[in-house]
Amino acid sequence: MNDRATTELQVLKLRRSDLKRCAELERVLFPGDDPWSWQAFASELDQGHHYVGAYLGERLIGYAGLAVAGRPPHVEAEVHTIGVDPEHQGRGVGGALLRALLARADELRATTFLEVRTDNETAIALYRKHGFEIIGLRKRYYQPSGADAHTMRRPAVGTETGG
């Protein structure tokens, strides 16, 4: 199943050799908000954070990362980033990446948090679809653009409140 010769989408552990491509995508996706460098991605991997890539064959078309803090039963996770090549957006790649991150959070029974631009309606809809709710607002969170962010939370597996 890890045969990268296939042209079907695969979500796999991010390879260090793909960090340059991640930085290239960052510059395209987040030109006004201090895109991450190769070194920033390398630091995330060096710290042991959970990063995955979306691959079509050998080509990286998206990436996502999750940080985990604490130990059971008090574990929290934070989505650090999700990015998808503009040529492949709207085809379920972001959802596949998010599900891979949430699978890791669910293994740990972690409450998961993230920040998202308040004007990114597509991402907000994706996060809501996967159980996130808006719990706060961070004014001027993204720099240097000064864009605001919503803080969103997804309860740990098994702790959802009924309704």
UniProtKB/TrEMBL annotation:
<keyword id="KW-0012">Acyltransferase</keyword>
<feature type="domain" description="N-acetyltransferase">
    <location>
        <begin position="9"/>
        <end position="157"/>
    </location>
</feature>
<dbReference type="Pfam" id="PF00583">
    <property type="entry name" value="Acetyltransf_1"/>
</dbReference>
<dbReference type="InterPro" id="IPR006464">
    <property type="entry name" value="AcTrfase_RimI/Ard1"/>
</dbReference>
<dbReference type="GO" id="GO:0008999">
    <property type="term" value="F:protein-N-terminal-alanine acetyltransferase activity"/>
</dbReference>
<keyword id="KW-0808">Transferase</keyword>
<dbReference type="InterPro" id="IPR050832">
    <property type="entry name" value="Bact_Acetyltransf"/>
</dbReference>
<dbReference type="InterPro" id="IPR000182">
    <property type="entry name" value="GNAT_dom"/>
</dbReference>
<dbReference type="InterPro" id="IPR016181">
    <property type="entry name" value="Acyl_CoA_acyltransferase"/>
</dbReference>
<protein>
    <submittedName>
        <fullName>Ribosomal-protein-alanine N-acetyltransferase</fullName>
        <ecNumber>2.3.1.267</ecNumber>
    </submittedName>
</protein>
